[in-house]
């Protein structure tokens, strides 16, 4: 999980692009992300992990947190997680939310 401050959709995309330039993240299967921009606009991207972006987005909305992008990165390890993948996304988002206080 990675996160940071962004103010626009372009900044959010640039954040993810910069993250994916790092070898570790470039080789990831999914870099799913979401942000509620300071103007209230929700932006998300599942990156092939269907439904994961909305999980991140809903958690941000529940917290009333704007301007923070959260990227949940996953590498496929050979085992399909099914519904458990959403719990893992939630766990990663909770870590970020706890870290920022």
TrEMBL record:
Sections of the chain in a coiled coil: none
Gene source species: Yoonia ponticola
Protein name: Putative IMPACT (Imprinted ancient) family translation regulator
One Gene Ontology term, aspect cellular component: cytoplasm
GO terms under biological process: GCN2-mediated signaling; regulation of translational initiation
Gene3D superfamilies cross-referenced by the UniProt entry: Impact, N-terminal domain (3.30.230.30)
Family named by the database record: Belongs to the IMPACT family.
Domain Impact N-terminal: 7-94
InterPro entries membership: Impact, Impact_N, Impact_N_sf, Ribosomal_Su5_D2-typ_SF, UPF0029_Impact_CS
């Amino acid at each position: 999980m990675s996160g940071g401050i962004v103010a626009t959709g372009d900044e959010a995309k640039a954040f993810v692009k910069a993250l994916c330039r790092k070898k570790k993240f470039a080789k990831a299967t999914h870099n799913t992300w979401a942000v509620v921009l300071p103007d209230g606009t929700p932006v998300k991207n599942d990156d092939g992990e269907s439904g994961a972006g909305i999980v991140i987005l809903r958690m941000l909305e529940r917290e009333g947190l704007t301007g923070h992008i959260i990227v949940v990165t996953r590498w496929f390890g050979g085992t399909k997680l099914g519904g458990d993948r959403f719990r893992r996304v939630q766990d990663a988002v909770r870590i970020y939310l706890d870290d920022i206080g």
